[in-house]
Amino acid sequence: MIEVLAKLGRGPVFLAGEVLECVITFTNPLSASSTSASSEMLAWASAQIHCQFHASENRVALPPSDGSKHDVQAENETVFVPNRGERGQCILSTPPKILFCDLRLDPGESKSYSYCETLPVDGPPSFRGQSVKYVYKLTIGCQRVNSPIKLLRVPFRVLVLHGLKDYQFPQDEAVAPSNPFLEEEEGLKKDSRLADLATELLMVATSRRSLHLYNISNTRGKVGTFCIFKTVYKIGEDVIGTFSFSEGDIPCLQFSVSLQTEESIQEEFQRRRGQPVSFTVHARHQESCLHTAQSSFSLPIPLSSTPGFTTNIVSLKWRLHFEFVTSGESAGTCLVRGSQSEAVTWTGVEQMEVDTFSWDLPIKVLPTNPILASYVSQFSSTNSITI
Amino acid sequence: MKKVLDLQASITSLQSMLEDLLVATADGFLHLIHWDGMTNGRKAINLCTVPFSVDLQSSRAGSLLGFEDVYIRDMEYCATLDGFAVVFNDGRVGFITPMSSRLTAEQLHGVWAQDVVDGTCVAVNNKYRLMAFGCANGSVQVYTIDTTTGAMQFSHKLELTPKQYPDIWNKTGPVKLIRWSPDSCVVMVTWECGGLSLWSVFGAQLICTLGGDFAYQSDGAKKDPLKICSMTWGSEGYHLWVIDGNSSSNMKPERNANNEAQQFGILQFQFIKSALTVNPCMSNQEQVLLQGEDRLYLNCGDAAQTQSPRNTSAHSEHNHSREKGPFSGGSLDSQGLSTLLGHRHWHVVQIHSTYLESNWPIRFSAIDKLGQNVAVVGKFGFAHYSLLTKKWKLFGNITQEQTMMVTGGLAWWNDFIVLACYNLNDHQEELRIYLRTSNLDNAFAHITKVQANTLLLSVFRDIVILFRADCSICLYSIERRSEGLNPTASIQILQEVSMSRYIPHPFLVVSVTLTSVRTETGITLKMPQQACEAESIMLNLAGQLIMLQRDRSGPQIRDKDNNPNQRKHLPFCAPVVLAQSVENVWTTCRINKQKRHLLEALWLSCGGAGMKVWLPLFPRDHRKPHSFLSRRIMLPFHINIYPLAVLFEDALVLGAVNDTVLYDCLYTQTSAREHLEVLFPFSIVERTSQIYLHHILRQLLVRNLGEQALLLAHSCATLPYFPHVLELMLHEVLEEEATSREPIPDPLLPTVAKFITEFPLFLQTVVHCARKTEYALWNYLFAAVGNPKDLFEECLMAQDLDTAASYLIILQNMEVPAVSRQHATLLFNTALEQGKWDLCRHMIRFLKAIGSGETETPPATPTTQEPSSSGGFEFFRHRSISLSQSAENLHSKFNLTKTLSMPSGPSVKRWSKDSDCAENMYIDMMLWRHARRLLEEIKLKDLGCFAAQLGFELIGWLCKERARAARVEDFVCALKKLHKDFLWPFPVIPASSINSPFKNGKYKTAVGEQLLKSQSADTFVNMEMDTGISTTPRSRSWLATISSSQREMDTVSSHGPHMQDAFLSPLLSKGDECSIGSATDLTETSSMVDGDWTIVDENFSSLSLTQSELEQLSLELASKGPHKSQVQLRYLLHIFMEAGCLDWCVVIGLILRESSVINQVFSIMQSSDIDGEICQNIKTGLDAVDKWASTDCPGYKPFLSIIKPQIQKLNEIVEEQVQPEAFQPVNPSKVPEQANPRAEESRTSSSHSTNPQSDAGSNNASRHEEDKAKTEDEDSFQEGSYDCVVS
């Protein structure tokens, strides 16, 4: 029996283009003193990253894929096919790397291997939508002699920051020291610099505030003003906006704001012409606001949600969806019974005519620092199997 | 229904009191009116007839109010004290209580609060039995009633400190309004002059709008504080509704209102509070969980937390926050990853809207041990949510939800949710357990009937604790049963403890928990496995922490016969009061033998009084635990945050604070938007954490419990912030004692210093502390911790150079410049030796600063230093400069040497501008000395790094040292050293040319007699040479014989015109090396490598031409070092060339095996008049190399023979120069001598080679050169012979 434990040291979330490092430990769990102790052998182990794509049959019509050739290979028990037995197709994979051949583990002994691979910078982000799924996995295959291959899957999450791959490190070349005695610890630094750069780019993109004011009005007239301070956010941030109804002509009885994503299949892949796009609500605020002069809302963008992106098959867009219930008649919406000089009782009307209308405000949602996102990832950073 | 009563005076205060209405009028009467408004139920009490006294005991003879015109300005009825707190119009405050149950004039008594004479208003907290009196001076005095005497007892004071609000002091005006929140946990105070402040029940200040972001606009202008006419808390304390006092006067109506505005503006502030304000179950609160009316805030995913589940009982305050002013914008800055526990990010869970719609607002919430599931309770039913799957689970049957009302809170037990509820269908109190994984339905629930209304619920391990309205505590055991598909949990009653004797009113109980804490730690020490058992009940009764310990004094404590049934009947001892003014209690049932102090302690938060810990004390000597019955000690300490969770193992406290986002600037755009927007910033909640360990250590030291402090500290020494803890402790004690006005009789600093010396971080801690304190305190500090000079030296000894550098700054300030320079020099030299370049650069700066300070010269900012310090990028530019400089240097050096009388070598202007600065000279001296040492020890790599890192001007220096340190004394040694330093492999003879011993042997057997003969001859020669070199001094005669024999061979070789491959492969030297073997370590290893190579090659040795070529190629590659080394060597070569250190050039040329380099050197020697000594040296060196190569490293032979002609030429030069000089016997004849036998050798070997083409192929390129070399060889030979003749 050999225990295989894979650990993503930095957590299970990465930016596309970053280097993923996984420490894979093979342990013979028997203690050296136990009577039945014997050393264990593994013929080989190798590791590979792949991205699995899966689409809903009802919504997505894919051209016939060539993914079937994998199945043919999979018949052969000695071929390492990382996505064997998974649904969907492998749309992206890194070259397999051999960790070792002929590993012998004495009782109680364990050996660790570090697997490093740069994640493809141009892949799709991890995404679980209603029509389409993109799932990234690191698969470690190992085999005992004369046994089938065992696979250990380490799922992880990939965030894509568009534009990052185009961004050169100009200072890189300029700084290159020409005195050969000046030490340069470039190697690992570059990777952390990618994350730093991404963080910086994100900060620049999302910290810019500019006041956006929107007049909300329907056919009857003005309802109020909506004010939002920015339209570009990182996941994990709160979308904050304010309403002012004091200048409106039409009383607003209730409003709701939903933070939604819109997942649409590109036209050429749609199963049916004009099939509806699917919406997902991530957060919602609802308030009764008759007589309210000012109000505000704060909607958290979940850290676990996928930032907006587009691939050739699907596109994900974020928006704020507003719904306003306004009074249909401009007449008073509450009644004051009794004369003003005496005690007064306020009562609401029992029935009133209302209009309901909605409005959408597109916003941009970007990724965040992958380390931050690791804190709430549903993936565990350690995975193990026993073979 | 309307009824008018005429009370004949204006009403000043009105209170409802059970079924009565209590009205105070301005004529000094109290009217008691029955609710139904019947006049016959009315009673008027003249205040003048109520006796008042200091306490109830003396009130029998109590005085009456004693003067006219007194009336009640404000009053509030307190049900749990059964009386009402009153504020009189003259500012006095008191408490009026009926002597019997009925409120009649004869039986009323009053007590005074003696210290208050300026009362303005009052508010009563029923749960904690507190009366808060607002005063005209702006403070709030909080009183309770002494239950024994009946006197008013001062509890605490709510007061803005001038420290925090310097300019607000006395500007608040009198207290205007005080409002306790519905859950009695916080109080809101506002003043006449405006402003809002929020305090915890025992006086920890949580928020105040008079300071910071609230008081000032972003441009620094002062804001008008919000003036409040009236305010009230909303349901569950999630909102504060405020009528804005400003609005009626100076604002247009309908402009400034948030909600429901007509004539006056009404503001609604939103709050979130810690979940444990209302649900203080200790079992499952491991994280900070804040609940708002529609969402939860969790401190998500701290790795440390999920790994070791924590158990904290945070019952706490409203964390005010999120003011919902009409502002907007901002967002949590999620980027700042805090060093300690993750980040400031909250995990926000929005409560399912379907549940919220019918059950708003949220009343209780609970999170499970692993922080993965939360459950919330609204008006009816409950719902739960998984943070992993992000899915809510609601009752499938809405009727079940709506007939269930949770009354006593809820708690997680593993996968189960335990809750106490009222069944509206059956009118029955129940205890229910639902499984998380099954559908939310009563069919899957385990339901137990409970006798009375449950007020509190908690889970300790497998025990459920209920506190019921009949003042009894019920313990149930809970057990998992996995029969059938769905596991269920069943509950059994264990024990019922009636507390009615101790608890006057069930409403007063804040929390009930079961803990493993005992007063004596002896038992847990003896039997640590018992530590987790339920040993005591902790009851927070209106702030009074009461402990009921299990009575183990009886005979039943014998552990062996202690089966579960017996144990549950173990009675509890009489209650003991542990502490007063307790807001929250934290304990854990986890065990960690390493951190017993922290885990077995009881942590309390006491509002304004800070925190307390009830720390167990353990005997240090574990061998005799029985002899020492340890105790516990209560230590108070202050932290700066309001604690919401205690992380036991991490010695951390977590909290949450209000953070504000300013948007003032934005309103300029929106022009005349409401002024309210400017009154408040937008508030968000931010996470905080704090270390407290230093407080506890210090408290222990104060109490002479140094041993305990050490035990505790050692158990935490692995925490990442432990160094910080020590530093904080030292710093705080230092600040306090050094700045104290009066002399301290028993100073703690020496104790603290001694304590810190117990840890390896001592030196570091002291210096960090010193550098963060003012200079004025240093003397005091170092008087306690020791002389900084000694500490500096200790650092040096411990090789902790960075810390030593920190001490230097202290020395610089405390000592005369000479001393700090002396120490700086010490450190500088050590740093140079260890190659700590950053430190070296700092030290250079430092030394210069000392110098400039001393000699009043301007700070050294030489322009030439900059390019050099930026390293090689400027190399070429710099080089041209240095060339001219070096010339200059040569001229100036003698002057300088003379004037400054530097003994140890020549000095040169390095930074031309400030060459006259003595400090620079001094630094230069040290740099030179170091460079010289490196060079003398042949540490070229180190020298390169040194020069590059420190911007040391290498060329100029080398120029000066050309004839001294920069001379290569021993070429062979230098060569070997370079090989080693630059990881450069020794050259290898190509495989086909019989490199390895293995091949050698093969050849020997395979080839014919002739070869063997020549081999043996050669062996003989080489052997002799070897012995000659190593043992005897060379005698001329001996050499002469050799040379003569060589000459013979040479002539032989010169006869074969087709034998071009002269340099190839001294067959015999190979054999030699084999036999000599361990001549030097280096060659041995390299020959091993060779062996490997050839063995591998052997497999392919059917020896097709291309293959052998490939082999050679690969061999050549293998004999080259790493690319980086090559670049570095070339760089050094340039430097040496530039500086004219030709002998070094030769050495590097050799190691790189580039004949062009050697050529260049020789041509320089010829062209310019170089010191004859140098030429001579080079020649001697090359000879030595040649000899060494012949014996130890034949791989060099081919190259040496390539450059042979040049060497020959060199001989000529030396000749010319030597002739006039003294007798130069040795070398000239040697070079040809060596080249020639090889020539013959290779000739023979190639002629017998199985694969002659390979030789030819490999040597084609060099053939031409060889031809030339040979002719020159002959020339030089003749010269040599001539030389011999001369001598």
From TrEMBL, chain A:
InterPro entries: Rgp1. It comes from the Eukaryota. This is RGP1 protein. It comes from Chloebia gouldiae.
UniProtKB/TrEMBL annotation, chain B:
Its main location: cytoplasm. Keywords: Cytoplasm, Guanine-nucleotide releasing factor, Membrane, Phosphoprotein, Repeat, WD repeat. Residues 315-325, 1262-1271 have a biased composition (Basic and acidic residues). Residues 694-854 form the RIC1 C-terminal alpha solenoid region domain. The keyword Cytoplasm applies. It comes from the Eukaryota. InterPro entries: Ric1, RIC1_C, WD40/YVTN_repeat-like_dom_sf, WD40_repeat_dom_sf. The keyword Phosphoprotein applies. GO terms for molecular function: guanyl-nucleotide exchange factor activity. GO terms for biological process: intracellular protein transport; retrograde transport, endosome to Golgi. Residues 305-330, 1221-1287 are annotated as: Disordered. SUPFAM superfamilies: WD40 repeat-like. It is found in: Cytoplasm, Cytosol; Membrane. Pfam families: Beta-prop_RIC1_2nd, RIC1. Residues 305-314, 1244-1261 have a biased composition (Polar residues). One of its GO terms (cellular component) is Ric1-Rgp1 guanyl-nucleotide exchange factor complex. Forms a complex with RGP1; the interaction enhances RAB6A GTPase activity. Interacts (via central domain) with RGP1. Interacts with RAB6A; the interaction is direct with a preference for RAB6A-GDP. Interacts (via C-terminus domain) with RAB33B; the interaction is direct with a preference for RAB33B-GTP. Interacts with GJA1. Belongs to the RIC1 family. The RIC1-RGP1 complex acts as a guanine nucleotide exchange factor (GEF), which activates RAB6A by exchanging bound GDP for free GTP, and may thereby be required for efficient fusion of endosome-derived vesicles with the Golgi compartment. The RIC1-RGP1 complex participates in the recycling of mannose-6-phosphate receptors. Required for phosphorylation and localization of GJA1. Is a regulator of procollagen transport and secretion, and is required for correct cartilage morphogenesis and development of the craniofacial skeleton. This is Guanine nucleotide exchange factor subunit RIC1. It comes from Chloebia gouldiae. The lineage of its organism: Eukaryota, Metazoa, Chordata, Craniata, Vertebrata.
